[in-house]
Design brief:
219 residues, mainly beta, Immunoglobulin-like, 13-stranded mixed beta sheet, 1 helix, 38% strand, globular
């Protein structure tokens, strides 16, 4: 699907989060029907926007409430490579050295070099980071996550519930954030590094905020 963006196909650099009006399920996540309101964005090319692989396509959908940003990755895969161990709460440092889906969120547009990084693996491990020039700190966001693996269809789906308070002091639906989404697959090089908005670097590098797209919040 390349960098196709559902909704406004003329603007392939815009992601849209849709306000969730239905109550969450018993686990605190959107009900399946709620996700259908959010237009999917899909990508299956590498970080340079080349070498399409439809069997490694990633789909992203976003929903929001004033308290929570919900993110769902649906990843097609050829192989699964994960760490067998993590901290008791599922946090795993260096998670990016195995298969992951990633979201980089930048609510504060005036500081190009500062953003929040969220990663989740096919077995539900996670990491969240606060990134700034020369700095990388644990965000301690309080996120919740759940993951489903469908071996028959060769897909894994991860849902994240990210508290707004870890992203902004006061959430404003009219705000326009900057964002990018990524995926990594493979236990050893050459691994498949894919990006919604290509970073254009010679070697795989996701930390290129200049390449971020835009995130808007719709009712």
């Amino acid at each position: 699907m390349g960098n196709a963006q559902s909704g406004d196909l003329s603007n392939k650099t815009k992601a849209v989060a849709v306000r969730m009006t239905k109550p969450v399920d018993t686990d605190g996540f959107p009900q399946p029907s709620a996700w259908e309101r959010a237009a999917p964005l899909r990508f299956d090319e590498d970080w340079q926007g080349k070498n399409r692989d439809p069997e490694k396509e990633t789909e992203v959908r976003l929903l929001w409430t004033p308290e929570t940003l919900f993110l769902r990755f649906r990843a097609r895969y050829r192989t699964i490579s994960v760490f067998p161990d993590a901290e008791p709460d599922g946090r795993r440092d260096q998670l990016w050295d195995r298969d992951v889906a990633e979201a980089f969120l930048q609510p504060e547009r005036s500081n190009l070099r500062r953003y929040k990084e969220f990663e989740v693996s096919p077995n539900g491990f996670w990491i969240d980071l606060d990134i700034a020039p020369g700095e990388k700190h644990d965000l301690k966001s309080g996120l919740k996550r759940r993951v489903f693996l469908d071996e028959a269809k060769k897909t894994w789906t991860a849902e994240l519930a990210i508290p707004m308070k870890c992203l902004v002091e006061k959430f404003e639906p009219a705000a326009r954030w900057r964002v990018n989404f990524y995926r990594v697959e493979g236990a050893s090089e050459p691994r498949f590094y894919s990006a919604w908005q290509p970073t254009g670097t010679a070697m795989p590098n996701f930390h290129v905020p200049e390449a971020f797209g835009e995130l808007v919040f719709a009712s």
